[in-house]
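Example record

The entry below shows one chain as it appears in the dataset: sequence first, then structure tokens.
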Amino acid sequence: MGKKIRVQRRGRGTPAFRASTHKRIAPVRYPSFSKKEQEGVIQGQIMKILHEPGRGSPLASVKLDTGKTYYTVAPEGVYEGQPVQIGSRASVDIGNVLPLGSIPAGTMICNIELSPSDGGKMSRSSGSYATVVAHTPEGTMIKLPSGKTRYVNDLCLATVGVVSGAGRLEKP
């Protein structure tokens, strides 16, 4: 017998079990860049750190010097007004976005693209991160939060750092 698990209870359709998707702020995606922009460095600044209901980690609104604005999951340690860099020549500091081929082995990364310019798909939940293991001719080998290793294209973007909100599950 037993009781219904939470996923099964969600199907009941009452407000207690329904996801409140109308309160979402914006999708979390990297903006699209030209080859020339990606090879250099694009400067930007974190304008605001926001809470989005239904998401465990805060969002960061980033405004670039090119005029583009995008939302990303905020890594631990970033703050409003912090300068960030995007591109293959960017420094490896928390909050900066680099192609995987430019990130040294052993670096903790989050919001990783599976294929170039898909916007970021992996390691986006609160407290999660992947680790760059090695650079090979097949691509960059990364160790995912599940423990699996995976080869990803060197041109895929990733944010340096660990997603904030790590203590969310520590509540009694």
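Notes for this example: The longest helix spans residues 6-10. The helical segments are 6-10, 35-39.
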